[in-house]
Each structure stands twice: as C-alpha cells, then as structure tokens.
Amino acid sequence: MRKPLHAMQEELVRLAEDVHALSRQLHPSILDDLGLVEALRSECASFARRECITVEYVPTGIIPDLSKDVALCVYRVAQEALRNVAKHAAVDEAKVSLIASESELVLKVEDQGIGFEVESMRSQPGLGLSSIIERVRLIGAQLSVVSATGRGTVIEVRISLGRSGS
Questions:
Q1: Domains of the chain
Q2: What is the pLDDT of residues 23-60, one digit of tens each?
Q3: Strand order, beta sheet including 104-111
C-alpha cells in the first residue's frame, strides 16, 4: 500500500506545482497596477458588496516590494479565506489585516462565526483550506489556523521578508 500511496503523493505534489505555475500566469493585473495593499482593499470591497458581509480592512506598516509569487499568494489566500467566511462562518462581518514589519509580512483573516474543530480540518481539509495550505507551502511561509466551534476562526499567514520578499 505504501508504494502506491507514495506515488500518488508525488503526483499530487507535481499537480500542485503545475497549478502554482498556472496561477502565476493568471496573475491578476490589479496586483501589478495598484500593488498588494490596494488590490486587497478592492477585493475586500468587492467581496463585501457581493456577499453582504462587512469587511474591515486594516493595512499596517509600509508594505515592501514583494515578488509576484508572494503578492499573488497573499492575495489568493485572502480571497479563499473570505470565500470560506461566506460559505461556512455564518457572520455578517469579517476582518482582514495586512501587517508589515522589517522582518515579516502577516496576513490575517478573522471572523467571529461558528468556527470548527481544527483537528478535523487537519485530517480532512476542504478544497479551500487545502488550496491555502498549498499556496503557503509553495512560498515557504507559515500558516496558522485557530478556530473552535462557536468561537470564530483566524487564518494567519506569516511571510519572512528576508527569505521570501523582493
């Protein structure tokens, strides 16, 4: 059983890398035109109108020039995390924070919704969370998912600027 499972795992990794390469080709022009801060502001506003969920967007610090891969990852993770809020959280508001310091960039997407048991997510993540996990892995960032039933969810991505920026 181990050989077929290992072969399947290798194939999935190759597939994820292909998807990552394709997503780079599908890089949203808004990131190039306006930069990450304004692209996220626009995405949060668009999401709020579309889903009738108020989104508080809080960019903090001076966001450095980021590689296209890193900027795209942050943008797509924010999109997917907000999509998960709309699908699962049962809330009418959420918060997106983008925090820059000299050493790292942090994206946080928070809601006070119904939450879920993180252990069940680790054993069988849904497609949205799997996508987030894979995107974060591909840029060498750290992902934290904190949630509990009835207590909301916080998805946090930490990107070391020394290793992944510029």
A1: 2-164 (3.30.565.10)
A2: 655 667 888 888 999 999 999 999 999 999 999 999 99
A3: 54-60, 93-100, 104-111, 153-160, 142-147
